[in-house]
Amino acid sequence: MNAPKNAAPKTAISPTRAENYAEWYQQIVRGADMAELSGVRGCMIIKPNGYGIWELMQRDLDRRFKETGHENCYFPLFIPLSYFQKEADHVEGFAKEMAVVTHHRLKAKDGVLVPDGELEEPLIVRPTSETVIGVAMAKWIKSYRDLPCLVNQWANVVRWEMRPRLLLRTAEFLWQEGHTAHETMEDAMAEAKRMHEIYRQFVEEVMAIPVVMGEKPAHERFPGAVNSFSIEAMMLDGRALQAGTSHYLGQNFSKALNIQFQSREGNLENVHTTSWGVSTRLLGALVMTHGDDNGLRVPPRIAPWHVVIVPVLRNDSDKDAVLAYCESLRNELNAQIFAGAPVRAKVDMREISGPDKKWDWVKKGAPLILEIGPRDVEGGKVCIMRRNALEKGKSFALRAEFVSGVADELASIQKDMFDQALAFQKARTVADIKDRKAFDAYFAAENAFESGPGFVRAKWSGDPKSVETLEALGVTVRCIPLDQDGKEGTCVLTGAPATMDAIFARAY
RNA sequence: CGGGGAGUAGCGCAGCCUGGUAGCGCAUCUGCUUUGGGAGCAGAGGGUCGCAAGUUCGAAUCUUGUCUCCCCGACCA
Fold it and tell me: A7 CA, B25 C1': separation in Å?
């Protein structure tokens, strides 16, 4: 046996989370082969391992949307400026991060191509589609019989962010945006809350990321919204990440865009609308919730491959038998059902060394990695590594037992990953800070992997002016959690009487 | 957009101050050896030094401009 002279690094990802959290994040996205920079300012390339996860997320979410009565549509990428400026708050909120199309052709001038053919009306590249969908709804909706109108689109959007971060905040990203119109405020509010809950279920049950459900304070609302609901997740450095939002838009957009219907009583009324969305930002949340110093860990329900089989080939005489064993094992695994779908098992046939294959899948986060060599074939066994318990090393099982138990095993990994993330979130949420002095002391530290602040749950008066005093700390009100204790207390920021609980944190 | 840092081979970097025509480690390819685990030895391929202009006999190196990325901030449904 040849022991490597250069000792292998202790971790597959360098630097570790504790050494340099921001750099670790970059390295893990690359090491797991999820996404990379594109050379186009702020825009990313989503690679197969990242896109494969996104496709599974889409599939699951899309099913949930359809089960609740929504239908998919597609609306234009370009929005006429005149549409966009109809809702004042909406303009205010997005104006500073807009990509604008002003020309429709190129001409050669001094050997270089320059824009030519100026448009009479500039087009903006959609940052979100309330206006263009609202204009369509105004045509579609005439009567209360046309309501509710429930549409969703899977699309890309562009927001010219000042400081892009791979997956978390890119100039272009993929998302879904649901847009609905209803007869009454009650119906629309119920819809906004229904989708809020669907996001919670999806993110917690499928992505194994625990979240806090809450409502955004007024100053954090979506431009044009009456109420904004969000799910807030805690990243491994204690920062918050808004993982999904659902908005009750009232009649703001229906009045601006004339979305009117004749009511049951015969009156002409404006509809009440909602919008809700999640994006590829969730892939960033996945990294910063489940990543470790060896790479990504993907919860089984969205893992492109549940089980990766790495053949260990010593010499040509073993090769055929080992490969035949691997392939039949894969077929047996594919016949098993996990979470309502066939187990996704793959034999890694690439012509690279066994250890390299193993570490590649460790970094990509496959939940179960099997190494199969001649001895396993002989003994009818499998050698198992669990990605979420790498430190426990390998274990061996009889092939038949492993196959029949694989669905349970995946379910158990799914649960363990959620439980672990929930324990982290709870351990780093404090609820016993009662005054400003203790609050400032808590947030005096920087956010880091194993130290620094997380979420503070405390009473807040709701006074917008109190928030301005948080700017120096870089802290924001993340949400007003739905579960309120209703007890009287004093505002942690100002000392004024307050009954409302709020979550305070630094955020991405 | 403000402050700081950086762009040299796929990745990580040295060279720049003191201009002379590009180097190291890993990765890749080939051969031999090894084989229950991120192997060893030998050899090879790969870069108009982010881009543009200027100074110069000569620029990775000096000057100016420009683009991009990273970190901190501002901004961020």
Answer: 15
- Per DSSP, the residues of A163-215 read S-BTTTB-SEEEEEEEEEEESSHHHHHHHHHHHHHHHHHIIIIIS---EEEEE
Can you give the distance from the CA of residue A53 to the C1' of nucleotide B30 in angstroms? 38
| Angle of the A48-67 helix axis to the A185-201 helix axis, nearest 10 | 140
Nucleotide nearest the Cα atom of A446 (by C1'): B72
Q: What is the ipTM of this complex?
A: 0.81
pLDDT digits 0-9 by tens, A371-394: 999 889 999 999 999 999 988 889
Which uninterrupted H or E stretch holds A455?
A: strand A455-460
Which nucleotide across the nucleic acid strands is nearest to A471, CA versus C1'?
A: B74
Query: Under a CB-based contact definition with an 8 Å cutoff, are residues A260 and A270 in contact?
Result: yes
**Residue A389 DSSP class:** G
C-alpha A368/C-alpha A488 separation (Å) is: 50
Whether pLDDT at A7 is above 70: no
Return the closest-CA partner of residue A177 out of A280, A99, A279, A287: A279
Q: Which nucleotide is nearest to A276 (CA to C1')?
A: B77
User: How many Å from the CA of A109 to C1' of B59?
Assistant: 31
Inter-residue contact A199 to A244 (CB < 8 Å): yes
Choose among A127, A78, A85, A136: nearest CA to A104. Answer: A78
